[in-house]
Amino acid sequence: MKNLKIPHVFIFLSAIILFSSIMTYIVPSGKFERTTRVVDNVEQTLVLPGSYQQIPKHFSVQGVILGDDVPGKSTPIGLLGLFTSIPKGLNSAGALIFFVFIIGAVLALIQHTGTISVFINLLLHKFGSSPILLSFILFIFIASASTFMGMGAEFIPLIPIFLMISKRLGYDRLFGLGVLTIATGVGWSTAITNPFTVQIAQRIAELPIGSGMGLRIIFFVVAVFIGFGFLVWYGKRVKKDRLRSVMPDDDFILEGNGIVIEDHKPTRKHIGIAVSGLVLFAMILYAVQTMGWGLIEMTGGFFAVGVCTILISGMSGDEAMKSFIKGLEMMLVPALIVGFARGIQVVMEEGMIIDTILFQASNMLEGRHPIVSAQGMFAFQTILNFFIPSASGQAMVSMPLMVPLSDLLGISRQTAVLIFISGDGFSNMIIPTNGVLMASLAIAGVPFDKWVKFVWPLFLILSVVAGLFIAGALYLNY
Fold it and tell me: What is the pTM of this model?
């Protein structure tokens, strides 16, 4: 990892898009038939196992340059398709991109009122002498929100806050980002009730929603202590010797995020803004869990948070809009990164090679010992997450194949669900196609290669632990 050097994030993601485009000329094209069904008023698109058909490729000069659609054939990605994959990715990720913009803008409004500053100061005064305790409280809160409610992208606006806390406690930039990102990762990967992973997977596997929770709770506790233990080890090392930081030359200067910690007590205005924001946030999460709210509805909810902040603070219209626009400007690069990352999936889908990868992987797993097959399924889900970083989208693609495959291999469907959430989850901490991760790194000012160097050992440890839990689930006939 010492010699790993990753170029600028946009160049890096563009290189992956180019590589994926080249692969559409090499990897055979094919597709599964799909069907739809409605569950709890939500339409689901499912892959039909055993329906895979290879599709012949069509090569032509026109196809290489402009693309050349021929009925019944697949055309590899041409130059035009390569260049349009990014705007197509931006278009397909439009809801998430707008969500990122709005939560950044709303956070800027709240920051402008000084509310965040005074409450950070309050936390630091109360727990400043116990940095490990404060870090653990923050870590367990984020991990719990992720594992129970499926929160991830919602935490992006909190990154500057965590960086500021990390700096005040004497740690580095990576520690602050790690408290947030690693906590989200371990929570997402254990998915006690995460509606975007385990609940969708259990519906497809025809299992009772919420079943098998006991083992996932144990998994969550183990993963939390491993993740936090890793952070404590790293933090102590950095405090002892700053040169042992993964970013030893970083001056850790925080400018332009609007957060300045001042030694003031919260006023009625600050308390009113904080209470209204927390209440509306809780209502948004409740609606996500019970009313099927998606990103669009959540974005509207955050708009309401912004409006309440403006009204309670008494800001003028011009003052509010200046802060709002400043927040939008801060989120420009992170939002574009989400679209670039989605462009990789666009290329794979248009080149019709995702289903081929799925088909070949499922064939390789058949006929193996259940332990070997289960670990193979885990590895496959981890790799698949690179190509389909959307958890719910990945569930719709892979679970309809993994369920019958697990039946054939003598692996319980509950174990297949455990394999899915683990494979989907932990890899989110390292894959560059995860738009939320790349956006978080951009906001935190952490290069991707530095982040990988920092988190790679933890990823390996957690992957081994997940493999052991999967083996234990087989032994217990989970």
Answer: 0.71
